[in-house]
Amino acid sequence: MSRSGTYLVVGSGSIAKRHIGNLKKLFAPARVVCVSASGRVLGSADVGEGVLCLPSIARALAEQPAFAIVASPAPWHIEHSLQFLEAGVPVLIEKPVADNLQRLSGLHDRLSVYSPVIDVAYNLRYMSSAVAFKALIEEGRVGALRSVSIDVGQYLPDWRPASDYRNNVSARRELGGGVLLELSHELDYLGWLFGRFKTVYCSARNSGALEIDVEDTVDALLVRADGLVANVHMDFLQRAPVRTCKVVGQAGTLVWDILNNRISLHRARNEQTVLFDDPLYDRNDMYLDQLRHFAKVASRTAQPAVGIADALATLHLIEAMKRSAAAGQVVPVGDIKA
Q1: Mean pLDDT by 10 residues, the chain (338 residues)
Q2: What is the pTM of this model?
Q3: H-state helical runs in 183-283
Q4: 76 in any annotated domain
């Protein structure tokens, strides 16, 4: 069978189901194959009609997929991905690339070999306001940068109200839960927009309010080599969801309101100009754009949008934040070599 018409998804959670639906939409009449991350037997009740459910990755590889999407829990991302990569199948890996650096120990050279066909699914980079926000920063709309503030939070029980949040990946340490990994989109775009940071001081804590075994609140202060400071707040506790990035510059302040897909510029006390506003934006579009781009990566006609080096840099930052929280002191972020 030709590799051109079959696509493979590992996992059956909410993000796996989204990818399956989008593969059908973009590549119709696509043949979509699904494998359970845990090895259990899947059926149409798990992943929808018209999906070929197979018992193992080894069996799925016989279908010669054009590419694979690894949407298993983070602790299994690298293990699953390498099975595809070593068989010559390009891989889109759901974020984060792993739950800790130990999972990548000794694998840096192998991953580097496959780097042209690995993309990591930090889909927020494809959002229309994200692209506009990056352009505004790069053109110097607010002049020299003075500080960055990121605030992201939503009450965890509201994420997927149809299920018990305590059983979901986000709430379970053994599955890669906790705000640092689950909300790492913010840490990815921090590097995308502002480059690498040199040091971090972090407080990561569990409030005890949610009956989970991972951190539900994080506050961090990051400092770039040139002195630019970024304040980052992340939590599972805010009843009113928030997701913003504020950039203070010499000539004004830019505010990116991600939930409302809006960017505003503040130049004086009572002066606010909306530079971008698209509240009716369909958020599935960024997932579709991500798949369109990855199809080009898989055919080697485009470079990965979020390559393995970027994904490792985000994981190094997460590990540094954890070390800082454990030690109660400022720590260096370190390099990206696994």
Answers
A1: 74 94 93 90 87 94 96 95 97 96 90 96 98 97 97 93 86 91 97 97 96 96 98 97 98 97 93 95 98 97 97 96 97 71
A2: 0.93
A3: 185-194
A4: yes
